[in-house]
Q: What sequence folds into this?
């Protein structure tokens, strides 16, 4: 009578494998599914990081073939944090005179991250709303909004370099006469900082918008009908339905944007501002590693300090994420 | 068709025991309902039969085949879920035929079967709709069609009507029974709603705290509950319970207001045993109209009356100044009575009632197991003792 | 979301002067929202599109006159830069390389992240939080922190656990493998969020109907999470296509060495002259495939809307 049964034993190894997976406990099945991801991450991420970490425990030997000298333990970390490491790449202009250079890079990085993430979130929300509504031509509006995200960083950098270039672009003149920018904005640290931040917001708001949009579209539409029948204004609908339900997706988006912003490097170089003018932590790593000194150990040290700084910032999000998931469907 | 047999099923989640040691033997073509309060283990039981949950120990057999280690798809079962669980990205046709498509049936065969299943649940002409375009009842019928289209050995239904409104639920209940009559397939049905359990099943399995309490036809569970839990769970409104003790001449309530005369030795009770007397509301009778073998009159006062249409619920208290504690229906000194709609009973009136002795239940207070059902003196046995109480009548 | 969807003006008869509009707006606040919506939409379109418009104007300018300044119209008019970009270097090959990287990485990342996202989002197991944190921590590090060991590994200078991989430098593998690891955490987190929201009943139903556990993931969970999967896919594809660090450093500079578009664009910057018009034209050409992808994939995102009653 059983019309829909297959023999439970099969010669086909794929079928046997699937049958074996069916009988795994939930826990074992979960570990099995995680193997590919962790295999990749182990070889390509954890292992190189381990080697880089070991590197950071040795002395720099700039003239030796191996580039690395004796084991010094955490001395590199102490030197960097107390600003005694003479091998770190130096800025062309020391902006604040006395401020230790590492702390200066830290300040630039944090300021960049906070400003860009706040603006990208707000703009991303607005853009997601525009993309979610139904109207004729929405497809093209969506494409237009996503397009900046599709611009290679090299081009994004060039674009903003040219826009603010005193001879090619037309923005630098008016801004200069309004007293906002100096004569050559890209060589002035404050002006260049603003330009790179604006460039980043221009390009990356679409990232936030896409994730927020995807979150919005997983919301059951009938909830909005219920709310509208109950007389909720658009703002109340946003406040009581949209926001809480997309919060997990929103926090994931903000989390990764924050991580990315705190590693900012590409746009600084590509916009022509350069690491000397807008020194971020990543700038410090790259310049120390690939610059004239090639101080690998010092660069590795700064890389790990950068990761720790980001880790501290991210733990705030993780707490929020943990908190928000309590209200979810699970 | 197939029998379903659970042997010594035990399921632990970490340190929690969901099912202790469950044995269940379901006959071919039988409609069996698992009933119990939420969290009692009935859903775990049906998931174990389905294969969605693996038991910690024990075996599951379907049609004499040990399926304990088989995945759900190879067990020859179909299931209808409480949340209906239609695939929102597939239309009705694809939802119904999903299982057949997975099993690589011929297109014509699929068409034929889907057509027939849709006819059975009266869904003709809706095959190209999306689930989001249908009402709750229609969706549930799609879910049922999805189950019957595969002609499985057994249907498993986990609270399939819980999300429907009352009217629709009654309607679907009859439809399910009709489908069962038509297909004659074994059905295991889970519900916490005893009205569904009573009306549809051949047998019901009452489960509490992961233990099978009673497995019997609905009326047997109603008339001869195996223990206090079944007695309290089956029947609405619930049975009245009165705590008391066995005396030489029968039962005496701890609170003193009820005596029931019978011969303790005839029902296997010992004098001094702590017991619980159970009486259903419809077996509490106003003394005036009481006929047959009834207990002595109990003086009570009516507190609240609830006319339900075909019957009236009357909440009685033995102490005039007391009010009924709805939170604790078994509190001493209160009784629930159910009388016919013609009865003229006002609130806050004195009322003399008696209990129908042939429908009294006696349970051991410690083990909660039933001692006796019906305390009427068997005909021909001489009631030798003439107690002062009976002389009052 | 779908209630005030008609374009402004089509639903009402009143198309009169401003006062009429204000009157009707007071009676019908939806009109105000609609006007606000249109304003905001135009603002966003302007800010996102204007720099690209200007980039196009540079591309159309006469290469030798760009340094004089480019306003709202090209300085001089010379559309030949769109041809010249292919004459100077095989730019289409650079694009092809980047497309290969992006496609391979996206497929690989979506597959691996789907399995992991399913485990993290839908299964209970010990060590879940530490493992998720482990995935996340990887993205804390500047790419440079991975670079040297990987560079040595791909050039066969060192071995991993005694295994020396084939020489991956200047092959798609040399780019795709590290970028997969770089973009994996984001995809895992996105998919975890979306997969976790699918009701359990649907997965159970699929398994009863005849799929395996793995089959339920591909037949039910993933299709129902289409907005999330498409989003993760778009973000990964575009990010890899435009990636700067690994794709630049793990390949040679020539198109035959699997150099990506970044190398192509930079090649218009010679020692003596920077051809902004060529760089602009090349960028516009390079963006076209991505724009096409966005058009196609965003339809997939919209399809999430029609799936409707996803939640119980």
A:
């Amino acid at each position: 009578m059983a019309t829909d049964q297959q023999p439970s034993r099969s010669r086909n190894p794929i079928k046997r494998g699937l049958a074996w997976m069916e009988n795994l406990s939930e826990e074992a099945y979960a570990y099995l599914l995680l193997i590919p991801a962790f295999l990749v991450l182990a070889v390509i991420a954890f292992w190189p990081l381990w080697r880089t970490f070991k590197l950071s425990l040795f002395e720099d030997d700039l003239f030796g073939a191996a580039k690395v000298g004796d084991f010094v333990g955490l001395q590199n970390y102490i030197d960097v944090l107390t600003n005694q490491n003479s091998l770190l790449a130096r800025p062309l202009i020391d902006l604040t005179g006395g401020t230790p250079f590492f702390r200066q890079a830290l300040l630039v990085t944090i300021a960049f991250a906070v400003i860009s993430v706040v603006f990208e979130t707000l703009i991303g929300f607005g853009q997601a709303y525009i993309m979610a509504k139904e109207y004729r031509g929405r497809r093209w509006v969506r494409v237009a909004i996503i397009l900046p995200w599709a611009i290679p960083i090299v081009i994004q950098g060039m674009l903003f370099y040219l826009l603010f270039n005193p001879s090619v672009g037309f923005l630098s003149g008016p801004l200069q006469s309004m007293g906002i920018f100096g004569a050559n904005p890209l060589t002035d640290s404050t002006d260049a900082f603003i330009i790179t931040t604006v460039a980043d917001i221009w390009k990356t708001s679409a990232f936030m918008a896409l994730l927020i949009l995807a979150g919005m579209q997983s919301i059951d539409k009938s909830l909005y009908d219920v709310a509208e029948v109950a007389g909720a204004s658009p703002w109340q609908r946003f406040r009581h339905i949209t926001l809480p339900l997309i919060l997990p997706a929103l926090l994931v988006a903000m989390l990764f944007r924050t991580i990315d912003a705190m590693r900012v490097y590409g746009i600084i170089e590509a916009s022509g501002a350069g690491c000397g003018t807008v020194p971020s932590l990543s700038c410090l790593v790259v310049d120390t590693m690939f610059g004239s000194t090639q101080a690998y150990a010092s660069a590795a040290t700064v890389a790990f300090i950068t990761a720790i700084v980001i880790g501290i910032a991210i733990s705030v999000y993780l707490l929020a994420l943990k908190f928000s998931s309590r209200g979810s469907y699970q | 068709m197939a029998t379903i047999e659970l042997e010594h099923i035990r399921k632990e989640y970490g340190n929690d025991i969901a099912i202790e040691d469950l044995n269940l033997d379901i006959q071919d073509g039988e409609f069996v309902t698992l009933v119990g309060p939420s969290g009692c283990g009935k859903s775990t039981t049906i998931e174990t039969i389905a294969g969605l949950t693996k038991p910690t120990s024990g075996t599951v057999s379907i049609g004499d085949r040990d399926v304990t280690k088989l995945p759900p798809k190879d067990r020859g079962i179909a299931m209808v879920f409480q949340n209906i669980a239609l695939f929102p990205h597939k239309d009705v046709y694809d939802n119904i035929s999903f299982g057949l498509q997975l099993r690589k049936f011929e297109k014509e065969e699929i068409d034929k079967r889907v057509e027939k299943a849709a006819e059975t649940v009266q869904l003709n002409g809706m095959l190209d709709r999306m689930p989001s375009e249908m009402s709750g009842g229609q969706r549930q019928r799609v879910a049922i069609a999805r189950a019957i289209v595969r002609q499985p050995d057994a249907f498993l239904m986990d609270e399939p009507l819980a999300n429907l409104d009352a009217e629709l639920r009654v309607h679907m209940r009859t439809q399910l029974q009709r489908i069962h009559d038509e297909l004659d397939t074994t059905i295991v049905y889970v519900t916490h709603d005893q009205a569904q359990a009573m009306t549809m099943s051949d047998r019901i399995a009452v489960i509490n705290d992961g233990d099978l309490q009673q497995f019997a036809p609905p009326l047997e569970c109603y008339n001869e509950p195996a223990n206090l839990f079944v007695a309290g769970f089956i029947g609405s409104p619930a049975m009245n319970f009165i705590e008391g003790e066995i005396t030489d001449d029968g039962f005496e309530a701890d609170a003193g207001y009820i005596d029931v005369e019978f011969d303790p030795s005839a029902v296997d009770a010992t004098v001094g045993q702590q017991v619980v007397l159970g009486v259903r509301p419809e077996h509490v009778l106003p003394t005036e109209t009481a006929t047959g073998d009834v207990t002595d009159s109990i003086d009570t006062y009516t507190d609240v009356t609830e006319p339900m249409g075909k019957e009236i619920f009357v909440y009685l208290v033995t102490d005039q100044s007391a009010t009924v504690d709805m939170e604790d229906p078994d509190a001493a000194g209160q009784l629930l009575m159910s009388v016919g709609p013609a009865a003229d009973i006002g609130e806050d009136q004195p009322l003399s009632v008696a209990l129908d002795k042939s429908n009294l239940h006696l349970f051991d207070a410690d083990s909660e197991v039933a001692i006796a059902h019906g305390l009427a003196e068997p005909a021909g046995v001489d009631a030798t003792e003439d107690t002062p109480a009976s002389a009052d009548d | 979301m779908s209630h005030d969807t008609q374009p402004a003006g089509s639903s009402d008869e009143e198309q009169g002067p401003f006062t009429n509009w204000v009157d009707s707006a007071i009676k019908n606040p939806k009109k105000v929202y609609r006007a606000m919506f249109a304003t905001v939409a135009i603002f966003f379109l302007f800010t996102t599109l204007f720099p690209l418009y200007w980039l196009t104007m540079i591309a159309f300018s006469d290469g030798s006159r760009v340094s004089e300044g480019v306003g709202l119209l090209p300085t001089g008019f010379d559309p030949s830069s769109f041809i010249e970009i292919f004459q100077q270097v095989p730019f289409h090959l650079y694009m092809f390389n980047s497309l290969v990287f992006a496609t391979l990485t996206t497929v690989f990342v979506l597959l691996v992240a789907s399995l992991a996202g399913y485990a993290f989002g839908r299964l209970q197991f010990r060590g879940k939080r530490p493992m998720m944190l482990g995935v996340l921590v990887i993205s804390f590090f500047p790419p440079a922190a991975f670079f040297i060991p990987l560079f040595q590994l791909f050039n066969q200078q060192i071995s991993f656990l005694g295994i020396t991989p084939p020489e991956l430098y200047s092959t798609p593998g040399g780019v795709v493998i590290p970028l997969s690891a770089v973009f994996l955490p984001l995809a895992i987190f996105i998919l975890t969020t979306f997969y976790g929201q699918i009701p359990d009943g649907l997965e159970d139903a699929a398994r009863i109907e005849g799929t395996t556990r793995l089959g339920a993931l591909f037949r039910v969970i993933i299709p129902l999470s289409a907005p999330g999967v498409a989003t993760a896919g778009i973000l990964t594809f575009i990010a890899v296509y435009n990636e700067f660090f690994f794709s630049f450093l793990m390949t040679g500079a020539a198109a035959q060495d699997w150099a990506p578009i970044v190398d192509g664009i930079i090649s218009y910057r010679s020692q003596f002259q920077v051809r902004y018009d060529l760089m602009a034209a090349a960028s516009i050409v390079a963006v076209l495939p991505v724009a096409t992808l966005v058009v196609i994939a965003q339809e997939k995102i919209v399809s999430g809307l029609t799936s409707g009653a996803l939640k119980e």
DSSP finds nine helices and 21 strands in chain B. Residues 325 and 331 of chain B are 7 Å apart (CA to CA).
